Structure formats: structure tokens, C-alpha cells
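Consider a typical record:
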Amino acid sequence: MTKHEEFLWELLLHEIETKAELTHMYFDCFTFIAQTEQLEAFQLHKKLRAESRKALEESDE
């Protein structure tokens, strides 16, 4: 295996590990939100953030 191929495999492994960590963090946050009965507030916050990001994208165009 060349150094370039080895680097690409290491990069791919790092990306997979990062996605796994983010998935665990998301699950932990979502579980906490559900246990503290803040699910509706979280869903509203998520909707508002999505709308805000969309407005920013449209203003950049």
C-alpha cells in the first residue's frame, strides 16, 4: 500500500469514528431532552434554526 493510500484509509477511519462519536452525542442529547420533557421545545428550536439557516443561504445567493 502506498503512503497516499494509507493516508486515505486513515482519513476514512477518522471520518467513520467522528460520525460514530457524533451519533452517540446526538443520541445522548436526544435522550436527555426526552427525559427532561423538553422535546417540544427542542423541536421548535430545531425548526427555527433550520429556517434561520435557510434564510442565510437565500441571502447569500
User: Anything to note?
Assistant: The chain has a mean pLDDT of 93.
